[in-house]
Amino acid sequence: xxxxxxxxxxxxxxxxxxxxxxxxxxxxxxxxxxxxxxxxxxxxxxxxxxxxxxxxxxxxxxxxxxxxxxxxxxxxxxxxxxxxxxxxxxxxxxxxxxxxxxxxxxxxxxxxxxxxxxxxxxxxxxxxxxxxxxxxxxxxxxxxxxxxxxxxxxxxxxxxxxxxxxxxxxxxxxxxxxxxxxxxxxxxxxxxxxxxxxxxxxxxxxxxxxxxxxxxxxxxxxxxxxxxxxxxxxxxxxxxxxxxxxxxxxxxxxxxxxxxxxxxxxxxxxxxxxxxxxxxxxxxxxxxxxxxxxxxxxxxxxxxxxxxxxxxxxxxxxxxxxxxxxxxxxxxxxxxxxxxxxxxxxxxxxxxxxxxxxxxxxxxxxxxxxxxxxxxxxxx
Length: 380
Hints:
CATH superfamily of the largest domain: Methylesterase CheB, C-terminal domain
Largest sheet: 7 strands, parallel
Shape: globular
Number of domains: 2
CATH topology of the largest domain: Rossmann fold
Order of helices and strands: HEHEHEHEHEHHEHEHEEEEHEHEHEH
CATH class of the largest domain: Alpha Beta
Distance between the termini: 41 Å
Strand content: 15-25%
């Protein structure tokens, strides 16, 4: 996807970051990691949510990396107050890998957080290039998004208390793409879903809209760390009444089930003794992710051929593009979420701009469109 002139202008300005964590050691590590990229600048740090709110009254930030557990004011309490001051700011929750924190992080997504990171211990941080690279990518992408949102709204990037509207907002750049022509809506044997940034909220909406049960098995890869995917599967089951669970290595694929790739593993499907069986792989990350959408898609194409309906939801990067191209080459179908309803139009934008989608839709219409392909009619 080519970068527009306005994107280039925004990228030339440093992304302004605040790090909020009660540990001075962690704040130091995060600051050093972020500033390994010259396009990023940590303009402030805070030991709790209350201090962070005071700093927001003095300066504008594009991204806040926010801890969950802090004294005085924790991250979940501070989150809605931060967004009340600046609704365009992007918040990354940095949380340790516990079941309680994973559940709190999902609540943070519902309130308005954009991303999450599994925070390593201070010992692990000292040699963690993977964490550093993931942090930098997320901060950079979301920082540019915050700038675009402000400019589109006609808001100048000055101190928060003195922020005013500028005379001319950035013009909206029309991203044109073509759809696959002469579509025959053949009923798929399976449904494959890929998502990343903004994905937990999108998946909850998508599966709630599906309601009841589905005839086909659904395979979902959401970029999330271990433990977080466990809690996400539980929340999807409770909210949608679908049978959603983390995939287990060696289990036989059954209809009317939703299989979520567990954090840290690629989810694949193989043929074994005449049955379709899930295989979890710890092969290297693809597109900087594990789980990743592309290996899931490749394995499904080998087993199911064209009888796959792929749905690519909000997320940064282009994971899923290669796998969806393979699917379309054999006659399968791809649907993508539109830009207006995506938190980040990276993954869905990549497949849309590649011209391989049968439709590009708002999130609220995705479940209904899927039903027309999957032949649900009235759901059982």
